[in-house]
Amino acid sequence: MTQDIDPITLAVLAGRMEQIADEMDATLFRAAFNPIIAEAHDASHGLYHAVSGDTLVQGKSGLPIFVGVMSFAVKAVIDKAAENGDLEDGDIYIFNDAHLGGTHLSDMRLVRPYFHDGKLFCYLASVGHWHDVGGAVPGNYNPAATDAFQEAFVLPPVRLAKAGKVQTDIIDILMRNTRLPQSAQGDLNGQLGALDLGKKRLDELLAEYGADTVRAALDALQDRAETLMRTELTDLPDGRWEAEDFLDNDGITDTPLPIKVALEIKGDQMLLDFTGTADRCAGPVNIALPTAVATAYVAIKHIFPSLPANAGVMRPIEVKIPEGSLLSAPFPAPVGGYTETILRMVDVIFSAASQAAPDRVVANAYGTINALSISGKRANGQPWVMFSFYGGGHGGSPEGDGLNHGNAPISTATIPPMEILESAYPVMFKQWALRPDSAGAGQHSGGMGATYEIEVLEESATAFLFGERGRFAPKGVAGGGDAALNRFEYEQDDGWHAPPMASKMVGIKLQRGQSVRLDTPGGGGYGAPANRAAADVARDVAGGLLTPDYATQTYGPDWKEVTQ
């Protein structure tokens, strides 16, 4: 029988448990060796249900996409432990198999059962984006991959520690399958430290309040999240709304791939039906089913931002993913470009929701992380791999213009600072600036994208790009205009060139002094451009965000009459 818990105690315990996850995040961010974790915060920690694996609590600094997918990771470990039949206090499982735990093979997952008084109480989990885990392309974003083995070394759930004793042979295998073993070892140690801290803090919490009270709080938080979600849905009109968007291609065949959703509300329930989405493709823009379900959760959290981050939110929501589609690709389908596909899923959910509740939804953000890897060898023969993602504009909203040069809405990951990248790798940023005229027009315009130009300082290097939105621009909503397309160019002896597939390319050979350049999209506009205040247009022209000709073409000449 569930123990009753008073509201004050519930609020205190909710804060304490969130703090545990937050401290785990902070511990890894401080300890990690690679800037994707240390600077960009591409990682997450949380507490998960002992039986179902459902998300109980997640840290506020972790990536939202991990809220959903990490529950699948914990479930995979629960199933594996059941096969072994000997789960012990001090065990730690590790794996990166994206078809079991979601996202892609760069995300290394550690799952640790937490015992109290000899009984399993919950699971602690840590996930972090390792800099390199083998595969054909340094940094693992291989746009030409046709199976998972071309993307990275695939590790199923295995026991890294048994009853507190680390299995060093597992670490030896991991370190032999990365181009950057020092970085990988540092990230692993950081994740192990975060799990140790989580255990220590849970020990303190349960000693203070008792296991029954904490368990009751966890149950109550999920039940209340469900109630809040049902209330929010009841406030919306019943109906069915559809939206469709496209991926440029799969990196193998230059054919657009549709992603379609029908959003249906009936009373206090919602259906997200992705029937009509493209079939599984040859290239790595497929995603595994856990990733697709988790993406739906991320979009819902954006539409209903006040709701807590636990599994109760999704109880009133059915996510229908068609079997055989690129949203439910089985192993060993390549899934390394999952970020591009889930961004498009978020976009179509927003576009459908804007028809039902335009006051709750923002226009499409820039819609691609532009995963760019540049690698080579230093003069002393040591390999280097600069992998990073890049920002763009966010969509306009009912409240105002979109954010200029933001991070992707699937995450809270920040864009690694230019100074960090230049100090760590033999490159120089010749440009890092806002991109004029890149935002969608609207009563509230989208945010601006960015221009990055990166010069190679070593004798030679090879670049790989995995992006999107090169052919299908981020959409506006409620009458707003579309943003600019993504654009990538690379320099050769005979001048600048663009990829044949617009947004994806492998094996770009660069010599010292040659550069690559990204012009990222802005966000879509919100509301009719004719309703934008002339003073706002004049301000953007004065600030260099809009060129005069573009401003006049898009918004008319009235802005010229405004005195700044």
UniProtKB/TrEMBL annotation:
Hydantoinase B/oxoprolinase domain residues: 6-529
Name of protein: N-methylhydantoinase B
Source taxon at top rank: Bacteria
Cellular component annotations (GO), alphabetically ordered: cytosol
Pfam family membership, one: Hydantoinase_B
Organism (species): Sulfitobacter pontiacus
Alphabetized GO MF terms: 5-oxoprolinase (ATP-hydrolyzing) activity
Cited InterPro entries: Hydantoinase_B, Oxoprolinase-like
